[in-house]
Amino acid sequence: MSALDLLFDFLRFPSVSTDPARSGDVAACAEWLSGRLADFGLKVEVHPTRGHPIVVARNEHRPGRRTVLIYGHYDVQPEDPVAEWKSAPFEPVVRDGVIYARGSTDNKGQILAHILGVAATLKATGDLPVNLIFVIEGEEEIGSTHLESFLAAHRDALKCDVIAVSDTGMVAPGAPTFTYGLRGIATMELRVTGPRTDLHSGIFGGAVMNPLTALARLLATLHDGDCRVAVPGFYDAVHALSDWEREAWSRLPLGDERILGLTGAPALVGESGYTTLERTWARPTAEINGIGGGFQGAGSKTVLPREAFAKLSFRLVPDQSPQDILDKVSAHLRAQCPPGVVLDIQSGHSGEPYLTDPHSRFGKAAQRALRRAFGTQDVALIREGGSIPIINTFKRVLGVDTLLLGLALPDCAAHGPNENFPVANFEDGIRLNQALLEELASA
Ligand code: BES
Ligand code: ZN
After folding, report:
1. For residue 73, what is the enclosing H or E element?
2. Most CB atoms within 10 A, among 26, 93, 260, 262?
């Protein structure tokens, strides 16, 4: 079976981890994956969890060799909004050299490239240059709920020298990219309640606090006029950017024009004193992800709603702690809450930021592998604004650093309609895996 046929089979599973109705599809995807890993000669275990299974595979380990753990995920985000897809999300197609399907970039295409790199090396030489462990989970998109306890319970079996992950981006097509930092995340939901029931806004407006007004006033206190987060103490643990980073990032081919084009936003707006890349990679933010309440139907309805809600998330940078930020934001919101309503705050999932030294022994080896696989001299050294919470957990529980060797292009539409992955990136990823294992073996 060709590499592309295998990827298409992988992409046909609607392994949407957040949807309980799809848990059978998620389990079937894990079974399919374990079958392929076994076909390639690896020893495979599928570990059930209270959520979705974790697939672990390894070659024959021999003393005296480096042990490399490659992590990825086989779960995907929901396909909504389905109507905006040009072809069905779980029926992969290639158009103009680009694969379109949910999960093509995030993360099935990228993890399968590693698997096929390993398969090719095993087929050609009968062996790998390292002891290898694949850990491929089904819950990354819902916060890796059961992976931390799995790591803790199998600490000895998962002992390794370094971890490699391809679940981040490249700065441009054909431009090898090494990511040495990720933002962390903290999430919460707010519910503001007022009267017992929805009221007539003519009879009671002016006498009773409107929960939507209260929520709007509350949310407006999150930022000041310079787009800085106005929560007391929010920036206490934040480090200033180093000069080398500011200088290196200013030379990357990622100007504001490109981001305007990618997003379609009329203008770029953010914290003053920082460039767009600095704001998204190395500065923390507060975002309102959803807001609701009151009448949403056609026309007007003169109602004073009984409740309003908002979903918030905060992107964090080293050394901000998710719990500390949730505590500070909660205290701020309670202090700012207008009278006449009750504010309820529920914390959601969170993950720590990650930062590693791009010039470590393994970091340099990874960059040599990137140069070899892409046939170029320059490797872009970047941080990213997105979060992969388990990366910091790897450091905490297994004590090892992670090399982030992403293959996603800026216009890959991960999480959105028409998610895509160029066939060339898939093939580059297969070559990258082969170069990476060789370089890590001798680093
Ligand atoms: N692959 C992404 C993380 C990512 C995105 C890294 C962009 C670098 C650049 C991952 O699958 C993801 O989407 N993570 C979530 C976090 C999770 C806790 C919901 C995110 O960043 O929102
Ligand atoms: Zn994702």
Report:
1. strand 67-73
2. 26
Task: Summarize pLDDT for 401-429 with one digit per residue, the tens.
Answer: 999 999 999 999 999 999 999 999 999 99
Distance CA 123, CA 121 (A): 5
What are φ and ψ of residue 204, in 5° steps? Answer: -110, -15
Global confidence as pTM? 0.94
Q: Measuring from atom 13 of ligand 1, which residue has the nearest CA?
A: 141
Q: Give 289: exposed, middle or buried? Use CB within 10 Å, 0-12, 13-18, 19+.
A: exposed
Q: How far is the CA of 332 from the centre of ligand 2 (A)?
A: 30
> Probe ligand 1: pick from 17, 140, 384, max atoms within 8 Å of CB?
140
C-alpha count within 13 angstroms, C-beta hemisphere, residue 27 = 10
Q: In terms of CATH architecture, what is 184-238+284-351?
A: 2-Layer Sandwich (3.30)
Percent pLDDT > 70 in the chain is: 100
Distance 294 CA to ligand 1 centre (A): 31
Choosing from 15, 166, 167 the residue with most ligand 1 atoms within 8 A of its CB, the one to mutate for a pocket test is 167
What is the chain's Cα-based Rg?
23
The CA 76 to ligand 2 mean position distance, Å, reads 7
Residue 177 near residue 169 (C-beta atoms within 8 A)? yes
Q: What b-and-e string marks burial along 172-188, b requiring 16 or more CB atoms within 10 Å of the CB?
A: eeebbbbbbbbbbbbbb
Domain boundaries, the chain: 3-182+353-441, 184-238+284-351
Structure tokens at 277: 């890349």
Strand locations in 222-351, DSSP E?
A: 285-293, 303-304, 307-316, 342-351
pLDDT tens figures, 31-43: 999 999 999 999 9
Q: Which residues surround ligand 2, an ion (CB under 5 A)?
A: 106
Which of 110, 280, 387 is the best mutation target for the ligand 1 pocket, counting ligand atoms within 8 Å of the beta carbon and taking the most? Answer: 387
The CATH number of domain 3-182+353-441, selected from 3.40.630.10, 3.60.150.10, 3.20.20.450, 1.20.1260.10: 3.40.630.10
Which residues form ligand 1's pocket by a CB distance below 6 Å? 106, 140-141, 143, 167-169, 185, 349, 351, 384, 386-389
Task: Return the ligand number nearest the Cα of 404.
Answer: 1
CB 100 within 8 A of CB 414: no
